[in-house]
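FW: tagging you since you asked about this chain on Friday. Here's the raw sequence from the shared folder, copied in full. Didn't touch anything.
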Amino acid sequence: MTTTTAGDTTGMGTAGTAPMGDTSTTSTTTTTSTSSNRAYAPAEGDVSRRSGKVSVYRNGQWVDSDNDVRFDNGIVVNRSGRVTRDGTEVELQEGESIDRSGNFWDKTGNAIENGWDATKRGAKKVGKAVGNTAEKVGSKVKDAVTDDDKKNQ
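HL: got it, structure written out here
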């Protein structure tokens, strides 16, 4: 935001004419960032699900994990992709990562808000599965009707 003011500092100006006396200009510039975006950059020991496998970031590259991964803060990522912290379990989805602090990141590198909210993540997964099933049922009904129409011709 930039604000500029100029005016008669003597109080002697006349309407319709230029102000008399000295003029002063005051400028104020304020820049405010409201962005809280954090981009993910893998660090040593982070875990990700890639090609259906749990991988650990080691020496600058992702390597398949041979065992469950245990972080110092008690978080455990098992080889099937289940992540556990203080009795809460969530499923690490394809392309997602978890850093050693327990923050979840999506495959595009954006932070996943409330990554430990298993109910929210589970509901999204169930909703997608229901949608996929509905599409399959619709396709089967269409095939049945089309087959029936062919028989009646």
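FW: Residues 1-32 form one domain.
HL: agreed, and The CA atoms of residues 75 and 87 lie 10 Å apart.
FW: great, closing this out.
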